[in-house]
Each structure stands twice: as C-alpha cells, then as structure tokens.
Amino acid sequence: MIRTAWLVAKKDLLIERRSRVLLWQVLPFGAMALLLSGLALGPAHAGTSSAGPGLFYLVMLFVALLMINRSYVIESTPGTRASVQTLGLDPAGVFLGKSLALCVELWLSGLVLLAGTVLVLHTGLHGALVALPSVLVTLAAMSAAGTLYGALTAGAQGAATLLPVLTLPAFAPLLVAGERSFSAALTHSGLWEWWLIVAVALVAYVGVGILLYGVLEES
After folding, report:
1. CA–CA separation, 216 vs 61, rounded Å?
2. Which helix (H) or strand (E) holds 99?
3. Cβ neighbours for 139, distance < 8 A, ≥ 6 positions apart
4. Is the CB of residue 185 less than 8 Å from the CB of residue 136?
5. What is the DSSP string of 43-86?
6. 133-159 confidence digits (pLDDT tens)
C-alpha cells in the first residue's frame, strides 16, 4: 500500500510539475481572488478587519476545488481509468497517493496565499505563523475529503459543477474549524480546541478513504 501510494503521488506531482497548471493558473487565480477580497473590505478596514482568516479559507476552497477537478481530469481520457484498474493497484494506496499529491499542492498554495493574507489583508504575521500548523492540518483534511469526492464525481456528466455541490457538506465543518483556529491564533485563545476537531476529521476522512476508495472507483 505504501509503495503504491508513493508511486501514485510521484506520478501526480510529476504531471503537475510538467504542466505547471498550479504555478501559472491556479496560484494567480488565488492571488487575484485574495486581492479582490482585500479591495472589497476597503481601505477603512485594512489591518483592522477580522475577516482575514475567513477570506483566506474561502479562497483556499476555490483553489482546492480547482485542484481536485484537475487531479481527476488528467485521468478522464478514454481508456485511462480502465488501464489503471487493470494494473491491480491497491485502492487504499491509490487513495493515499492522490491525497498526498493533492495535499502537497494545497500546502504550497496555502503558504503563498497565507503570505498574501499578511500582505494584502494585513493579518498579523505572528498570528499567521502560530496558525500555520492548524492551516496545514486543515488543508490535509480537505485533501483527503476532496480525493474521496473527486473519485465519486470522476467521469460523471457535469463533474466540474457537481463536485462543489457534493463537497460542501464535507468542507463546511473543516472551513469553520479552520477559520476559528486561525482567528484564535490571532487572539491567542482557544487555538488547540479547533485544531483538535480538524485533526479528528483528518483521521476520519483518511480512514474512510482507505476503506471505501475502491468502491467509489468502481461506481
């Protein structure tokens, strides 16, 4: 399972490195969305608004949806899924590998956009650094959940629009807990309570994915 996970993650990351979709399309989109969010707040609220954590996770949600869809689009060509299935790869390893690759991509995006939150929304640098571990855990949980729902919608008609609808119930509690954890880091209160919720969600999604990913691939 571990070897399969490593091979799948390496394959996905290699495709992403060669295509550079994350670098030239997704990250500029995220940066622009963050900049527009800062402009929407207006100069009167620059550096004083508490909306920074929420806006950060809202932009990360859009980025995650783009990357999840991208992760399965590259395997949607005729015969590709069938060819992968004939290799007899362990579904649990495939799930872990795709989750790991997506997690790395979201972590890279998150670091860039977190810096943008400090620069554009004037979120406190120290608070952002304190919140960084919880941000990484939240994005890892989003990766696991997104991989599950990506497999569920792969190959379906209108998958690009179906994916956001299906992932909303799974992402909503993660976004709320992540935002509260980020806000708590800025105010230095209650950080660990929300981080624990996200960590439990991460373990739950990984466990469900290991058990059910093979069934979702066949559906």
Report:
1. 23
2. helix 91-120
3. 60, 64, 103, 106, 107, 110
4. no
5. GGGTTT-S-HHHHHHHHHHHHHHHHHHHHHHTT-STTHHHHHHH
6. 989 999 999 999 988 887 777 655 555
